[in-house]
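Subject: Molybdopterin molybdenumtransferase structure
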Amino acid sequence: MGFEYLTNVPLAQARKEYLERLVSGGFGSKTETIPVFESCGRVTAKAVYAHICAPHYAASAMDGVAVSAKETFGATETTPVTLKPDQFLVLDTGDPIPEDKDAVIMVEDIVKNGDGSITIHAAAAPWQHIRQIGEDVCAGEMILPSHMTVSPAAIGAMIAGGVLEIEVIRKPVVGIIPTGDEIIPPCTDPKPGDILEFNGSIFSAMVRSWGAEAVVYPIVPDKFDQIKEMVAKAADECDMVILNAGSSAGREDFSARVIRELGEVLYHGIAIKPGKPAILGCRGEKVILGVPGYPVSGIIVIEQLLKPLIDHWLKAPAATDTYVNATLTRPVVSGLKYQEFVRVRMGCVGGRLMASPLSRGSGVVSSFMKADGILEVPQGLEGYEAGEEVSVRLLSPLEKLHNTLVVIIGSHDPLLDELADMLHLEDSALYISSSHVGSMGGIMAIRRGEAHMAGCHLLDTADGSYNKAFIRKYFPKGGVKLVSCVGRQQGLMVAKGNPHQIRKFADIAKDGVRYVNRQKGSGTRILADYLCMRENVDTASVYGYDREELTHTSVAAQIASGSADVGMGIYSAAELYDLDFIPICIEEYDLIVPDHAWDTPMVQALLHILKSDAFRGKILSLGGYTVDNPGQIIPL
């Protein structure tokens, strides 16, 4: 099949044809012989047969005495039988049975007499309490069939059957080659432009979890000859090679050319998103998979294209993925050209599973860490609407989702992360899944029945109060409770030393000042809009007023990195990034809880933590908070 630059082959077709091409070139399992006691979890290369019987002698199954059964006949409660010392032999469990004995009487069923004899009150049946030769397995019998995973019990059965070595399928070795001039080994103080190499750690952990071995090679700069040399070396030493980065069409993207010169490129470009630039190549029977540099793209590509090859090598049955129906909390728009994989956080609210899409950026590796499931949008479909029922492939156990306090879809605050940690420490079965879309987004989620709880700090510009007017407006018939949480210091975050001499809110419009805002609908954005109106600040004159971030910490990160000069946020976020802070006001950050969720164990556990001294101490240690009556219901 000829190579076509940046093809757009459907995933299923690419996966099938790639395996067929590799198998035709000799790709497949190799075997090795290892000690049985090291074989747990390994896959048998062929059937395993017992060398000896187990047990290999007639053995006592009890502590007691060995007797000849016929000498006990007639013994009853009313007509006991007495045996002389030469008519029995005292045995422990596992002792061999003498040739002239054919039964064992338990020690509990005998009466010892002063002259050394014993009295019994029940006759022994022939071969009672005796383990016969071959009771477990007979020599020559099959202990394990071919291509069976060795369990701990199987190890015991093999050793009992005299098998001390076993031929197993050798673990495939996957070589991982990171490339890029900007890539550096992990450290704590990278310079601007440096990118920490962590894909190798992610990919090696993934392939090891699938039963393969991993070798991470040194970082190779964007030099064609050096990349080619390293790929050739890895192909000689490994069964499969992941060439990470350089799979796109940029001026320093050499992967396709390297693979083509060393072997063959079957496809360059798969109809998936993220992961389109993947390169499916080989060198004879050796796999060479070109993987995009963005971590999420790479994870998707090796999960969808490398794992099936490892499974084929290890003769592992295809994994049965679990799919569930869930209600989508936000719309998902997808291109028609690709099969898209969207990470979602999940939880169960009112008997319904809810799925909240996470960041879809190919470089946002934390979204995979947080994901409970994958929404697979088929090629040719434009996406899904909010509120639509969709099928989600689970990454987390269903039990966890039913024990998840879902979903604090509201205003962001670092205290939510602290609450999640404290809740899980209190009860390891409970979790919090939070998705931050602003206070108004939280209110709407509660109205749609998509959340157990939402954070809210909405200013009523008419009287300066917080939250209550909005609850009365959006829940005129009640059905929710407003719970006091914390007061928090809102203000302007600026770089250390305040180089632009920001003194008051109106200074965000000064010449040369770059502002970074929160998203529309967030309480912080509503406050900023209100202050602009009060201070007669024309938002069009504020450079960056339309630049939006979703959390206080992300606003602080932009200022700390130097890409912005000032932004509205909370004191704890400024403190976290060592920024200067100009106080503006103390706002009320409260929690909205629908009545249907109020009595659930998860909500009650969280309210218990809110009222605790531990929570009070933790929040006050963060700085910028006041804690008056957390966990108390606020009268409406």
